[in-house]
Amino acid sequence: MLEDTIYFFYDLVQYFINGLAQGSIYALIALGYTMVYGIIRLINFAHGEFYMIGAFLGFYVVIAGHSLWIAFPVAMIGSGIVAVIVERLVYRPIRSAGRIPALITALGTSLFFQYLGQGVIGAEPKAFPSVINDQTFMFGEIMFTSTQIIIVGVTFVLMLFLWWLVGYTKVGKAMRATSYNREAAELMGINTNRIISITFFIGASLAGAAGVLVGLYYSTIEPMMGLIPGLKAFVAAVLGGIGNIPGAVVGGLILGIAENLVMGFWASTYRDAIAFAILIFILLVKPTGILGKNIKEKV
């Protein structure tokens, strides 16, 4: 009985470690959702496609013979540029049309990138090259890999950078002012269109980095890969409190850990279902999310 209890806790820690790596990826994608929503109240369902674009940009940089540390900035910058173009050409013209047209446009943009990717790249999955020596470390019965360490480490560094950018720079102050009251920010001389574009760029850059990390972790990428992770990242953003940056991180980590616990102790077939069960539960119990706050809004 004691031995069964010990192995239960070994399994628990193992699934927690696996969930931390998976949740870090969700957190990076969820940050883009929550930043864009915080600025212009848009749920950008095309955000998962920026993650897919980042994965393929990293893939082509690596197969061209460059290192992983070149692939990361290329994927991040490339995804960010695509997001800025989408914001300028697709979202900006309908910004004042209301939330329903914006939501439908976001869904259409997502489908456009999915099927454009299939048409240009092909529908079959691509094997992401092995660019690091993936070592396995053992601590008793608990196992973790160097890839998991890289995922958590890169995520932590990017989140620290975002925390510094938003909290301690002029751009971050302008982003917070635009989020609080866009009209007042414009009256104070802030170019809100520029700030919104920067927000799209940063959010998509983080998603692009997540795409490269997923390529390393799962070794395969394909044009439809942004659909389910994008929806799960949206769940993570809602769970933490959409519009709240720390909340997106907390939601992503909780979701990743919950998925791995369900797969380990129950059945892998319920991996995707748990995310949407969490979404329903949080909307019923605390619609503002874990770190979200009730805000009175004139209608």
Rounded average pLDDT:
88
Compressed to H and E, one letter per element, the order equals HHHHEEEHHHHEHHH
Low-confidence stretches: none
Count the strands? Answer: 4
Range of strand content: under 5%
Placed side by side, the strands forming the largest sheet appear as 1-4
Largest sheet: 2 strands, antiparallel
At a glance:
With 299 residues, the chain is mainly alpha-helical.
Q: What is this structure's SSE topology?
A:
Elements: H1 2-40, H2 47-63, H3 68-91, H4 99-121, E1 126-127, E2 136-139, E3 142-145, H5 146-168, H6 170-180, H7 182-187, H8 192-218, E4 220-221, H9 227-240, H10 245-265, H11 271-285
Antiparallel strand pairs: 1-4, 2-3
Helix pairs in contact: 1-5, 1-8, 1-9, 1-10, 2-3, 2-8, 2-9, 3-8, 5-6, 5-8, 6-8, 9-10, 9-11, 10-11
